[in-house]
Write a structure and sequence with these properties.
The chain is α+β, with helices and mostly antiparallel strands. The protein has two domains: 3-311, Bira Bifunctional Protein, Domain 2 (BirA Bifunctional Protein, domain 2, 2-Layer Sandwich), CATH 3.30.930.10; 326-413, Rossmann fold (3-Layer(aba) Sandwich), CATH 3.40.50.800. It is 29% helix and 28% strand. It is built from ten helices and 22 strands. Strands 3, 6, 7, 8, 9, 10, 11, 12 and 15 form a nine-stranded mixed β-sheet that branches. Strands 19-18-20-21-22 form a five-stranded mixed β-sheet, sandwiched between helices. Helix 1 packs across helix 7, helix 2 (44-63) runs antiparallel to helix 5 (172-193) and helix 2 (44-63) packs across helix 7. The radius of gyration is 25 Å and the shape is elongated. The two termini are 18 Å apart. It binds zinc ion.
Length: 416
């Protein structure tokens, strides 16, 4: 991709009215644009990061044998009434008393903030026998949640992208076995995107009465407070924290602010009861289906990565999610032999993957180009200039060291 052709430009200043580090850098770098408070557009550069994260999550969910689907964002009132959740204060609702009189609007919809109800209704069409279990399905979908105070950039939005997976089981034992598998898959996801998480016990909110598990990244930008032990695996969210639960370990309990990047819920039979989802057993008896639901905040991961990986010069993307693999920067004034060689290498490496950004702009100084490259946070910077001779200068965004290397070596660096 030629930098001169990008839709976006890097801003010289931080946006006004944004306090969070992630929103500041992401807007300045042209990854996202603020549309309203808590509502952001994901711009082409941001979408590259989002797709990389999505692909990692998709691979891990597929590895569990789960299937991807897409449910509607518009969810009719009747679904939520079955579980008593139409009244929760996070739903953006369409329709009102006045337009109820109009037949065409004689219904009410809410913008989906979670999809247990819709998924259970779908499952009812296909799950009838114990032989149909277990099953699971997931989606990546824009969710909507009313937030009184939408701050924190991508950490707490009114509209955000989520991966939500729902599982259906014959009994609690089977749910438990899946629960442990998806726990492991979540650990893989966070490791692959570059986040260190701790798993904290938490309350179930509007979902379940049982303990749930939250995947938390310890970071001062977070809104959660987690109590944890650095020696054993004990960790609890502040709402459920009881010091007496930390047994058989003498280490002191610490607490820290944290960003919740995922959660897993054992739902039991609450939703299958509401939607009368049951299966016929071998004995001929009927049994309620046991369910679980599991979320990962995709856009929130982007925000968390910037909170975790940025310095005074900009973002430092982990390689696995970076918008481009490498940033080629041309400093040569003339399109001479060396420039042509450099451009040919870019074309060769970029041809199939489109994962190289080439700074071809003639109206920017070397200093401006380097500063902008640091803001973008692409893992490798490769420079061709008068000073680099027949070689190229290579520098990792995360390091201050640079060196001159041959063209052959550059190809090795960029090999998959
Ligand atoms: Zn401990």
């Amino acid at each position: 991709m030629l930098q001169s052709k990008l839709l976006t430009k890097i801003s010289k200043t931080f946006p006004e009215g944004e306090e969070s580090k992630n929103a500041k850098w992401l807007i300045r770098g042209g990854f996202i644009a603020k549309s309203s408070s808590g509502v952001y557009s994901i711009l082409p550069l941001g979408l590259r990061v989002l797709r990389n994260i999505t692909e990692i999550v998709r691979e891990e969910m597929n590895a569990l044998g789960s299937e991807e689907l897409a449910m509607p964002a518009l969810v009719e009132k009747k679904y939520w009434e079955k579980t008593g959740r139409w009244g929760v204060d996070v739903i953006y609702k369409t329709g009102n008393e006045e337009n109820k009189k109009d037949e065409a609007h004689d219904f009410e919809f809410g913008l989906g903030w979670t999809h247990e109800e819709v998924m259970t209704a779908i499952a009812n069409n296909f799950i009838q026998s114990y032989r149909d279990l277990p099953k699971s399905a997931y989606q990546f979908q824009t969710k909507f949640r009313k937030e009184v105070r939408a701050q924190g950039g991508l950490l707490r939005g009114r509209e955000f992208l989520m991966k939500d997976l729902y599982s259906f089981h014959l009994d609690e034992k089977d749910l438990e076995s899946f629960y442990l598998k998806i726990w492991k898959a979540y650990n893989n996801v966070y490791k692959r995107v570059g986040l260190k998480t701790i798993v904290a016990e938490a309350g179930g909110g509007d979902f379940t009465k049982q303990y749930t598990h939250e995947f938390q990244v310890l970071n001062t930008a977070g809104e959660d407070l987690v109590y944890y032990c650095s020696k054993c695996k004990f960790a609890q969210n502040k709402e459920v924290f009881k010091p007496e639960n930390h047994k058989d370990c003498k280490e002191e309990i610490l607490n820290a602010k944290a960003i919740e990047v995922g959660n897993i819920f054992r739902l039991g039979t609450r939703y299958s009861e509401a939607f009368n989802l049951k299966v016929k057993l071998e004995s001929g008896e009927e049994s309620r289906v046991v369910m679980g639901s599991y979320g990962i905040g995709i856009t929130r991961i982007i925000g968390t990565l910037v909170e975790e990986y940025s310095d005074e010069r900009g973002i430092i993307w982990p390689k696995s999610v970076a918008p481009f693999k490498a940033h080629f920067i041309n400093l040569r004034k003339n399109k001479d032999k060396e420039f042509k060689k450099f451009f040919a290498l870019y074309e060769k490496l970029n041809k199939n993957s489109n994962e190289i950004l080439f700074d071809d702009r003639a109206d920017k100084s070397a200093g401006e180009k380097f500063a902008e490259s640091d803001i973008l946070g692409i893992p490798l910077r490769i420079v061709c200039g008068e000073k680099t001779g027949i070689k190229l200068e290579i520098k990792e965004r995360s390091s201050s060291k640079f060196k001159l290397v041959s063209y052959k070596e550059i190809e090795k660096y960029l090999a998959v």
